Each structure stands twice: as structure tokens, then as C-alpha cells.
User: Which sequence fits this backbone?
């Protein structure tokens, strides 16, 4: 029978769920046999598509497009421009403002104007550089300040208000203000954007796309080709990394491959060069955050006023949800009695910023940690004390958007455990001593919390489907709407389905996500892949199993309690049958052994217009303690020690969950340290390759890097086996690193709040250090 | 003369007649052999996803080195064994490094994994490496992973790379050695015609003659830079002359007076000798590029391409290195700093090529320091690199040789600073001020994506101060965040 999640002997009773099993593709990964789209066998005559752009232009009207040399280049079969689009020239998720091919106007440096279709990729790449595109350039709006001055936004402002921040401020003993800049982040998925389109009969198109959102690929391709959704099938077996960068940003490339296939009647593949990929696709939003906070003199918050100014780029893309999530997480883990949390979604003439693991949340939380640090530093208190002083608790547990933090005790317990296991206070003393005896090197320490809301804040996305077949040999075909980008979703869902049928994992055949099997899906995003799809698959399997049980009860004249599925067998009373045998019997008896499972997250009631209701099913929690050393002569920095305790509810697969936590932390650490996006004064991205954009490498990871799963009572909500989502929350564990750097700089002048901007590159650290020295001289 | 290249793969000798001048190993694997296990991540040798192993006989020993196949020219692998991820797991049996990666959850999306596997394969076969995280991370710093955070990969390496060497490659090592020996010859390679060719002369004279005939040809040593001209700049380079077959250019000769390195000696081949000259130099060498880049990239190439941000020239200039050039006209030597005329322009005549460098060993009264500042410690290009050689007599600096990278259009000496520091006293920091001040007049750095002009200038001064603090012993404690991997700070006692 189905195991109940609350069983005390849960772990031992379960055969597959909660086991630290390898990723389903691990052996294929290590042997090079895992197939990514560029590895698929190409149909004979496959052509290659390369996007072309106005390499000098940033913003302006297109005067002329001369593609004669492009067309004449060796190997070129066709050149696509906006006029070749039979359907709608738009690949946006919703707002209709992302042209597949620019027609009249260049909106940012890197906008695609045409596409070359050639016999080889090399020929297409070389031809694409031969275009002459004349653009009448106008002054581009690039920075937050430019956009504020010009008052350009992609969406209306939005805010949360609770109580009266004005009154709260005036009732405060102390008021602090500040402003910080938080940089963006390039996804740097190792597999760049890629799609292959294969023309089908009757105008149909089969599109293999490295995408987190096959349904959107299907809809976009249909819209651009001018055919019904039903004529297009999108499929993806796996991505070589996504991180949000393939949620909406895969659309354009699938559309271009499909347009080329429609025009030529041949299979067409597009795989972006890394530089093109980094120049053309959107990134994590960068922000300026202006804040003002009032507290009671002991560090307890009274009123908070924060304004988040983000650069959204040239179009809306997913900026609505991203910036909303910033506001949803501007409290980090702290109770704001009176709060005004504002958001401006600025339009700049740069690539359109998009989803990135955390989806705006990390920026909101980092600003909150800065506020806490500022209070602690000015009071001469330890920042951890001020954090704990302001944690949500039994009395003060409503977020600025009204949702209660029901599991505040988990937060308290988790942080207390981490405080203990990381030996925070002993190390605080060591850091103090080190700093007292070292003039050049300074150490910093920080322990920061994570509280992350789980669910799409766009309510309709919180649904999922799965398709499960039981075959007459007892093997199971598993399909669902979630996509595999390395996070182990397929493996977790397979474990759940194997558990349900009582079969070994080798009986469960994992299959590629395909819009013709499960339609109308949401993106695999918002950390919700497992919550949604494992539940849908479980429901599908349960339905089939239920039919078998009814059939067997009738056959054997017994009650359902007498029937047990396990070890690839079905036990009926004291009789044992192979599942295959039961499946054959059921088939002969004309029992349907296929089911489409469907799941919609319950209890979500968010109404954006009134800013009321419950946006999240639950919160995931975590904590991290980081220690760093900085060089106050050069700004160089090392991360020396990291301890993490993270809440995944009852883990479906501890190995995969720990992998998500470690990987998320390091990705967040990169965002806040070495990863710096630099645009030049004209608005051209100058860091568009790994030679100039530096994600962490193995030697950046401290030897002391301890990650543990919080042992709790599981998710209070009825999620699949009481697990919690784990994809995004760990990114924000890295706030500890940034706060530790800030702590190290703060040690230079007691009472002064460092002006450290993110990322904490050597130069940004040095700037903050020198500012502190100037202030020291001034006092 | 040979009009083919020959190499070993999967135990078989492969001979190719058709090798384009700019064809890469990665394209050969994926497009011609349809072996797709090797991935392209960036196409510029910076992510390591395309890593393959090359086995070569070095002093009779079979050595496997990791190579970025995306920027390695196919013709360059002549005479080597090419090992790709497809060769590791035969008949469904995983190689020990592959098993460890599976068991310890070292892959998530899997796209970078074949590259890691191949780098770890070379570590598995490397001799004399002690089991430590430092060794592992030094080895894999050129393989980027965006999913795992590296911990499980490092663990997998720790568990699998340092025990016995017992895999299919070690079992057939004798046979491999024999096969590689059979491929070794001293013939010139020339594939193509006079308009478009890949060539690899076997002698200096052969090179001089060929280059005189085709002075517009591209000279390529490790291809860690030329590779990008092909994959990123999409340059048409119809005439390629590879220097790798000329034995005389590969020499590394250590003598009491100094180190003579041939133009095509790689970073890897010179690392031990550089470390012997100075711990700082050894540390710098370890931070140039990645294991893959250092296995291919040559010191001569780093110098000859004239980059303002090449890491080795400032250090070599501060040490007083001289450069040797040759052409059919004869040979000449000049101080290294004189080779760099201006941005993008070097003192190299038509048909002339770099043959080597001489690096004098610091005398007992000289101390050397160098520091590299970059956003990321490993596999990054410096924003500022400062190199200092001080001659000290009784606590007085009698001569300073100082060079910086990243501060001007070429690697350049800080002449005003050098002059201002002559006579400075190590135990009196007030005598250092003139030098610190003079730096402002030596350089006018630029702002770019790596650093601002202000940061560059202030850091350049900080590095000078740091060098003086270190050699004078005035710093009470360690003043580097990155403790030098090689122990032993030397003070100018």
C-alpha cells in the first residue's frame, strides 16, 4: 500500500523515496553518452542557423539592411529577415515586446536582425559577419540613473505597504539610511542555447529545444510560423544547465530554427556561440536599493522603507514576477512592523533581464541583510544578535504582504543549531583576535538566514501534468511536464513512481518532456518542479494502481487492504504474483493501464491587484555561516570556511538535495564575488565570455565546506512525501559570504557602515576599504 | 616530407591526409568522427568542457596531458595518442574516475562532465602527485561546473586519482609506447598546397626557409591564442606553420647563470625551473591559464604575441630576461622589454621568429617578488601584475628592476620608480615614498572590463609597498590572502 508520509519508520519503510540514489543519467554523463541537442543524430541535409546583428549599434532606427554579401557567402542557403515571418514577429512570454527579428529599430546591443541558414555552422557564422546594417543611433539609456531621469519603465511601479511607515519612522529612536548596488549575473549554463527544428507533414514542426518551458516553445513557434499550437511539438530530454536562463530565453532560438526549417523544408539547427549567447540573452536583474530604516535604539525594527530600482532591459520578459519576488523577499527573515517596500521596473536599452535561480528574491534578501548589518555596526552589536532580535516569531509573524510565517520555530531552531555547529561565537572571538594583530589582512564572519516562498506568484502556473503507462511486462513509462536541467527532477519523480508501483527503478522508463504527451504545462521553475510534477506522476500512478486493485479485489474476492505492491510483485493475501502477470491479466480484462495525472497546488490565493492573500504554499528555510579574509591593500578575498544547514522537509533524495544546496550556494557566491557584468559607456556588454566573466572555479571553494540537511518533522503542507523545494533557496545562503566581507571591512573603523556594493570584486572591496579610511581620517 | 598526420586513438594508428590549416580537434571529433561525448562550452579554452587527453612520450615516459580540444589544431596532435571520453568506458565498464564521479554525485546537468573526466584521467595517470585538495583544484581549475559547486568532484578525484594506476591505458602502456615510437620521425609535415597548408617543419632551418617563403603565414606554438583567432575572430588563416616539431625550440636548459627556454617550451615544462628561480614565479606560473592552457601554451608564444596583459613578460622583464630571434639573415638577442614597441607592435622583422629566452638567475643579493591581481585567482587574466627585483646591499636598495602588466599598452618597466628607489633603505619606509610617488609618472593605465584606471594605479602602488614590506620583513604577519602554495618566504637579510 502507499506509505504514509508521517510513519515513524518512514525511511526504512520506503524502498526508493528518501534514498541517496545517483542521478538517473550519471553513468551517461560520465561516459559522454548523455545526448544533448547538439549531439543528436542530424537528419541528412541538416542546415545550420546563425543569428546576425548590427554589431556597432546600441539603440536607434534601422536605416537600411544590406545582406547582399551575406547571401553571396559560400554555403549560404537562405537569409531570414522579419519579412520572412508568416505569423507574429514576437517571442515574448506574454507582453508582445520581443521581436524574433528586429525590423525597424535596434533596442539593445546584440539584438538579432537577420539569420543566416547555411550548409555548415562555420559558413553561417562567417557569412553573418558580412552584413551592413545602417542604424541612426540615439543616446541609449543604460543605467538606473539614466532610466530614472528619463522616467522609462517596462511596467508600472508596485509596492507593499503595511501600517504607517511614516509614523513608525517618527516613533523610532534611530533612523539609518543607505543605498547599495547589486550586480546582475550571467547564467553561464555550460550548454549554450540550442534548438533543432524538423519540418513535419502538413506544416507541422518538431522542435528539440534546450528549454525549461517546452509549452512556451510550442506556443511561440506556432505563433511565429502562423500555425495552430497542435501543429507543433516541442521536446527536451535534458539541458546542460538552465538556472532560469532557458525559461523564456530559449524561445527566440527555437523560433529561428523553425522559421529556417519552414522556409527551406530541411532540418535546421541553431547553436549559439558563447559570446553571442552572453550578449543576446537576458541575465539576473541588477539593482540599486535605497533604504531607510527606523529602530527602537536596541536594534529592533520599527519601520522600513525600501525602494528597489531594477534594470529590466529593453522589454518586459519575466520582470513582473522577478520584481514582485524581490518585494516578497525584502524582509529576508525579519518582521517589519511598518513597511513600505517599493519597486520600479526600469527600462534600459540593454538585453532583457530574465529569470535566474532565486528570481529576484536574492536581491531583496541581500538588501534586508544590509539593513541589519548597518544597525548592528552602528550599535556596536554583533549582526547575528540583531538578526535574531528581528526574526519572525509567535507574535510577530506576518510578512509585509500579509502571509503568516507559520514555521517560525523551524527558522529559530535551524539558526540555533547552526550557531552551535559552526561555533559562531568562538569564531567571532578568533576573528576579533586575528584582526587585532593583522594590519593588512582582515577577517570577517557572518551567519545569515534564508526564508524562501515556494510557489509561482502567478497562480495559474501552479499546475502540472504527468502521463504514466504500465505495460503488460510490468515496466512503466514515465512522462511529465517538468524538464531536467541537472537538478535531478527526473530521478526524484522516478523514485516516487517506483515507490507507488512497488517496482525497482530499472522498471521505470524515464522519457523526454514532450508537449504532445503532457500539454499546457508551466515552466520548470520557481523550485517547484518536484512539488508539482512528482505529485502529478504520483496521482497518475495511484490511479492506475487503484484500477488494478479494484480488478484484483473482484478477482480474488478480497478487500484492498489485502493487496500490496512491492519488489516488482503484487501480494494478494498470502499469494504472490509478478506485477507483469497482474498487468497481463488486467489487460486481458480490458483495464486501462495508462493515466494522465494532474495536480494543482492547493491553498494559494494571492491577488496582486489588492496585494492580499497567500502567494506561497510554504516557506523553505536555511542558514549559512561564512568566514572570509580580505587583503586591505589589494582587495583580494578568500572564502575560508562555510557551514550550511538547510531545510528540505523530508528529503526525496538527500544526495540530490545536498547537490542542489552546494551548487546553489556556490552559484550565489559567484554572483556576489567574482562574477561582474561590465557594460562600456556606449552600452555594450564587455564581459561576454568566460575569459572575462568569472564564475567560481574549484579552487574558490573552501576546504571547510560543510552542508547538512535540517532534521525536522517534514513539510507541514501535504507535499509529496512532505518534502520541500530546494532549487532556488540555497542561492541566498551565499548572502553570508557578502555579509562576511562587509564584516571584515567594518572592522577597519568601528561604528562605520561600509559602502560595499555587490559583487565584492577586489576593486569593489578596495573602494569600500578606501572609503572607510577616508572616513577614519575625517573623524 | 610527410603529407599526412598520424596519431593514435583507441589503440589504432590513424593517418589523415585531409587536415585543414585551421581545423580544430573538437571539430574533427564531433563533425568528422561524429563522436559527441566531447562538448563545446565556450570555444575559447576557458571552460574545459571540450577537454581531451593527449598522450606523448616525454623523455621516454608516456605522459597524458589535458588539452582544450576547441582551440587545439588537429595537425598539432601528430605523433600523440588522442584519448576522449569515448575511449574510457569500454564494454559498459566505467573507468575508476568515472565510477567515482557516479558514486559521489559529481555530475548534475552532465555537460561539463566529460571534460572533468578527461582532466581527472590525466591526473590519474600523473606521476608523483600527492593526494591533496590543492593538487586536485590546481588540476581542475580550468574545468568550469555551474551545477555542483565542485565539492563532489574534488571528492571523486581524491578517491580515485591517487591510488594505483590500473586501467586499460596502463595495461597497454608498453604497446602504446611502441606505437608512439613508431610514429616519431623527423620529417617535415606539409599538408596542402602553396596557397593553403598546415605545416610543421622539423628543423629550425626548415622553419626559416618556409617562413621566408611565406612571411604572411601564421606561426603557431600552443594555439591557446591563435585558436581564438579561428574560433572567435573567424579569421581566415590559410597558411599555418606549427612550431611543435622542432626539437631545438623545446629545450629547457638550467645553468648556474640562468635558464634558457626554447620558444615552444610550455608553461608546464618550465614550471619546475621557474619555481626554482623564485617561489613567486612558480606561483605565478600555476596561476597562468589552466592546466589545459599550461600544457599547450608556450612562454615564447606569450611573449611573441605582444599582449599587454600577458602574465609572463612583466615577471621576465623584472628578472632581466633577454629574447632571442632568428631568421634566414641570422640571429640576434635583445632585452625583453625592448621587444615590445607599442600596443600590438613588436620588434620582429619579416621572416623573423622567436627562438628562445634567457632568464638570469637572481644573484644572492637580489630578491624577487611578483603579484598577480585578478577577479578570480585561477584561470583569469590579471588586471594588474607587478614584478620586482631588488638588489640589496647592507639594507640599501642599490638597484630596482620593476615591470608591470595591465598598466600600459605593453608590458613596461617602471623606470622613474626604479630610479627613485635606488638608495632606499629597507628598514626605513619613509625612504620608499619617492618610489611610490614616481609610479604615478611611469604609467597611465586604462579602464576596461577587468579594472578601472584608478584601481589599477592604486593597486600597482600597493603591490610595490607589499613587495617592500615583505622583503624588509617589516610586516608583522603574513600579508597575502593566498598563502603561497610553495613554502618559504625569503627575506633580504
Assistant:
Amino acid at each position: 500500500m502507499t506509505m504514509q508520509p508521517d510513519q515513524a519508520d518512514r525511511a526504512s519503510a520506503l524502498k526508493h523515496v528518501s534514498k541517496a540514489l545517483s542521478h538517473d543519467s550519471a553513468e551517461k554523463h560520465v561516459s559522454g553518452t548523455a545526448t544533448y541537442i547538439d549531439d543528436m543524430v542530424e537528419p541528412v541535409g541538416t542546415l545550420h542557423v546563425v543569428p546576425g546583428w548590427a554589431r556597432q549599434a546600441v539603440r536607434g532606427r534601422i536605416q537600411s539592411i544590406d545582406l547582399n554579401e551575406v547571401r553571396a557567402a559560400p554555403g549560404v542557403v537562405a537569409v531570414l529577415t522579419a519579412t520572412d515571418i508568416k505569423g507574429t514577429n514576437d517571442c515574448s512570454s506574454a507582453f508582445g515586446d520581443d521581436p524574433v527579428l528586429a525590423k525597424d529599430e535596434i533596442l539593445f546591443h546584440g539584438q538579432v536582425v537577420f539569420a543566416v541558414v547555411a550548409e555548415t555552422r562555420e559558413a553561417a557564422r562567417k557569412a553573418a559577419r558580412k552584413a551592413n546594417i545602417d542604424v541612426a543611433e540615439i543616446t541609449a539609456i543604460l543605467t538606473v540613473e539614466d532610466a530614472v531621469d528619463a522616467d522609462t519603465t517596462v511596467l508600472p511601479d508596485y509596492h507593499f505597504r503595511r501600517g504607517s511607515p511614516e509614523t513608525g519612522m517618527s516613533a523610532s529612536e534611530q533612523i539609518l539610511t543607505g543605498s547599495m548596488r547589486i550586480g546582475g549575473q550571467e547564467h553561464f549554463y555550460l550548454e549554450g542555447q540550442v534548438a533543432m527544428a524538423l519540418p513535419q507533414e502538413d506544416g507541422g514542426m518538431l522542435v528539440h529545444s534546450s528549454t525549461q518551458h517546452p509549452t512556451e516553445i510550442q506556443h511561440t513557434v506556432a505563433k511565429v510560423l502562423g500555425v495552430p499550437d497542435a501543429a507543433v511539438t516541442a521536446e527536451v530530454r535534458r539541458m546542460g544547465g538552465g538556472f532560469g536562463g532557458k525559461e523564456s530565453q530559449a524561445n527566440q532560438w527555437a523560433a529561428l530554427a523553425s522559421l529556417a526549417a519552414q522556409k527551406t523544408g530541411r532540418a535546421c539547427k541553431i547553436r549559439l556561440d558563447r559570446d553571442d549567447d552572453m550578449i543576446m540573452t537576458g541575465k539576473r536583474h541588477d539593482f540599486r536599493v535605497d533604504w531607510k530604516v527606523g529602530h527602537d535604539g536596541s536594534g529592533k525594527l520599527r519601520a522600513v522603507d525600501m525602494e528597489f530600482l531594477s534594470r529590466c532591459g529593453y522589454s518586459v520578459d519575466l520582470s513582473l514576477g522577478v520584481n514582485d519576488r524581490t518585494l516578497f523577499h525584502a524582509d529576508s527573515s525579519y518582521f517589519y512592523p511598518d513597511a513600505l517596500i517599493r519597486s520600479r521596473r526600469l527600462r534600459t536599452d540593454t538585453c532583457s533581464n530574465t529569470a535566474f535561480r532565486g528570481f529576484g528574491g536574492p536581491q531583496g534578501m541581500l538588501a534586508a541583510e544590509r539593513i541589519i548589518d548597518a544597525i548592528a555596526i552602528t550599535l556596536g552589536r554583533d549582526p547575528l544578535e540583531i538578526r535574531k532580535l528581528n526574526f519572525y516569531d509567535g507574535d510577530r509573524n506576518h510578512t509585509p504582504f500579509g502571509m503568516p510565517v507559520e514555521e517560525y520555530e523551524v527558522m529559530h531552531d535551524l539558526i540555533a543549531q547552526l550557531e552551535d555547529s559552526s561555533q559562531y561565537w568562538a569564531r567571532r572571538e578568533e576573528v576579533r583576535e586575528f584582526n587585532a594583530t593583522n594590519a593588512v589582512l582582515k577577517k570577517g564572519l557572518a551567519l545569515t538566514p534564508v526564508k524562501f516562498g515556494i510557489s509561482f506568484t502567478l497562480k495559474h502556473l501552479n499546475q502540472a501534468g504527468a502521463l504514466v503507462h504500465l505495460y503488460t511486462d510490468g515496466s512503466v513509462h514515465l512522462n511529465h511536464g517538468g524538464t531536467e536541467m541537472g537538478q535531478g527532477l527526473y530521478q526524484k519523480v522516478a523514485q516516487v513512481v517506483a515507490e507507488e508501483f512497488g517496482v525497482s527503478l530499472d522498471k521505470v522508463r524515464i522519457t523526454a518532456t514532450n508537449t504532445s504527451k503532457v500539454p499546457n504545462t508551466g515552466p520548470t521553475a520557481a523550485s517547484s518542479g518536484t512539488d508539482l510534477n512528482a505529485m502529478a506522476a504520483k496521482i497518475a500512478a495511484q490511479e492506475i494502481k487503484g484500477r488494478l486493485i479494484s480488478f484484483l479485489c473482484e478477482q480474488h474476492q478480497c478487500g484492498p487492504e489485502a493487496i500490496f505492491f512491492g519488489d516488482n510483485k503484487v501480494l494478494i493475501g498470502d499469494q504472490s504474483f509478478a506485477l507483469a502477470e497482474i498487468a497481463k491479466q488486467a489487460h486481458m480484462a480490458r483495464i486501462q493501464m495508462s493515466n494522465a495525472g494532474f495536480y494543482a497546488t492547493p491553498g494559494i490565493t494571492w491577488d496582486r491587484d489588492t496585494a492580499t492573500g497567500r502567494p506561497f504554499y510554504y516557506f523553505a528555510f536555511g542558514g549559512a555561516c561564512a568566514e572570509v579574509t580580505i587583503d586591505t591593500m589589494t582587495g583580494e578575498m578568500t572564502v575560508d570556511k562555510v557551514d550550511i544547514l538547510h531545510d528540505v522537509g523530508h528529503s526525496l533524495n538527500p544526495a540530490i538535495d545536498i547537490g542542489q544546496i552546494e551548487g546553489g550556494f556556490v552559484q550565489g557566491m559567484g554572483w556576489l564575488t567574482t562574477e561582474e557584468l561590465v557594460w562600456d559607456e556606449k552600452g555594450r556588454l564587455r564581459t561576454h565570455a568566460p575569459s572575462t566573466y568569472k564564475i567560481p572555479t574549484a579552487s574558490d571553494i573552501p576546504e571547510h565546506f560543510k552542508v547538512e540537511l535540517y532534521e525536522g518533522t517534514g513539510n507541514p503542507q501535504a507535499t509529496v512525501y512532505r518534502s520541500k523545494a530546494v532549487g532556488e533557496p540555497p542561492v541566498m545562503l551565499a548572502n553570508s559570504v557578502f555579509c562576511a566581507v562587509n564584516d571584515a571591512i567594518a572592522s577597519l573603523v568601528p561604528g562605520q557602515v561600509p559602502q560595499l556594493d555587490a559583487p565584492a570584486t577586489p576593486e569593489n572591496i578596495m573602494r569600500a576599504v578606501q572609503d572607510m579610511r577616508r572616513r577614519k581620517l575625517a573623524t | 616530407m610527410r603529407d599526412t598526420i598520424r596519431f593514435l586513438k583507441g589503440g589504432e594508428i590513424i593517418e589523415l591526409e585531409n587536415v585543414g590549416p585551421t581545423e580544430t580537434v573538437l571539430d574533427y571529433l564531433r563533425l568528422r568522427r561524429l563522436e559527441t561525448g566531447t562538448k563545446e562550452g565556450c570555444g575559447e579554452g576557458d571552460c574545459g568542457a571540450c577537454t581531451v587527453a593527449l598522450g606523448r612520450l616525454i623523455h621516454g615516459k608516456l605522459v597524458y596531458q589535458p588539452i582544450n580540444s576547441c582551440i587545439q589544431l588537429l595537425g598539432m596532435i601528430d605523433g600523440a595518442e588522442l584519448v576522449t571520453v569515448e575511449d574510457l568506458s569500454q564494454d559498459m565498464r566505467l573507468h575508476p574516475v568515472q565510477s567515482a564521479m557516479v558514486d559521489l554525485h559529481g555530475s548534475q546537468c552532465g555537460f561539463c562532465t566529460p571534460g572533468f573526466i578527461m582532466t581527472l584521467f590525466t591526473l590519474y595517470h600523473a606521476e608523483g602527485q600527492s593526494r591533496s585538495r590543492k593538487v586536485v583544484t590546481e588540476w581542475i581549475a580550468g574545468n568550469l561546473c555551474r551545477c555542483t559547486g565542485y565539492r563532489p568532484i574534488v571528492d571523486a578525484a581524491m578517491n580515485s586519482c591517487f591510488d594505483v594506476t590500473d586501467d586499460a591505458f596502463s595495461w597497454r602502456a608498453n604497446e602504446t609506447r611502441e606505437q608512439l615510437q613508431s610514429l616519431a620521425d623527423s620529417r617535415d609535415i606539409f599538408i596542402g598546397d602553396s596557397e593553403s597548408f598546415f605545416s610543421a617543419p622539423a628543423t629550425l632551418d626548415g622553419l626559416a626557409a618556409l617562413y621566408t617563403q611565406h612571411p604572411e603565414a601564421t606561426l603557431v606554438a600552443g594555439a591557446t591564442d591563435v585558436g581564438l583567432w579561428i574560433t572567435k575572430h573567424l579569421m581566415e588563416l590559410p597558411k599555418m606553420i606549427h612550431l611543435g616539431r622542432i626539437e631545438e625550440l623545446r629545450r629547457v636548459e638550467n645553468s648556474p647563470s640562468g635558464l634558457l627556454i626554447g620558444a615552444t617550451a610550455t608553461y608546464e615544462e618550465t614550471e619546475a625551473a621557474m619555481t626554482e628561480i623564485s617561489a613567486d614565479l612558480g606561483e605565478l606560473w600555476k596561476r597562468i591559464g589552466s592546466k589545459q592552457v599550461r600544457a599547450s601554451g608556450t612562454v615564447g608564444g606569450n611573449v611573441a604575441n605582444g599582449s599587454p596583459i600577458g602574465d609572463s613578460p612583466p615577471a621576465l622583464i623584472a628578472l632581466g630576461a633577454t629574447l632571442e630571434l632568428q631568421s634566414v639573415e641570422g640571429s640576434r638577442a635583445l632585452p625583453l622589454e625592448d621587444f615590445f614597441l607599442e600596443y600590438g607592435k613588436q620588434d620582429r622583422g619579416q621572416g623573423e621568429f622567436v627562438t628562445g629566452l634567457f632568464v638570469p638567475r637572481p644573484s644572492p643579493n637580489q630578491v624577487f617578488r611578483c603579484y598577480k591581481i585578478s577577479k578570480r585567482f585561477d584561470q583569469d587574466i590579471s588586471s594588474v601584475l607587478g614584478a620586482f627585483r631588488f638588489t640589496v646591499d647592507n639594507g640599501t636598495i642599490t638597484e630596482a628592476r620593476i615591470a608591470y602588466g595591465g598598466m600600459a599598452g605593453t608590458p613596461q618597466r617602471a623606470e622613474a620608480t626604479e630610479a627613485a628607489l635606488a638608495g632606499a633603505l629597507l628598514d626605513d619606509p619613509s625612504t620608499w615614498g619617492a618610489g611610490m610617488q614616481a609610479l604615478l609618472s611611469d604609467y597611465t593605465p586604462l579602464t576596461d572590463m577587468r579594472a578601472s584606471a584608478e584601481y589599477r594605479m592604486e593597486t600597482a602602488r600597493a603591490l610595490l609597498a607589499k613587495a617592500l614590506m615583505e622583503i624588509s620583513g617589516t610586516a608583522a604577519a603574513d600579508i597575502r590572502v593566498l598563502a603561497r602554495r610553495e613554502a618559504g618566504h625569503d627575506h633580504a637579510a
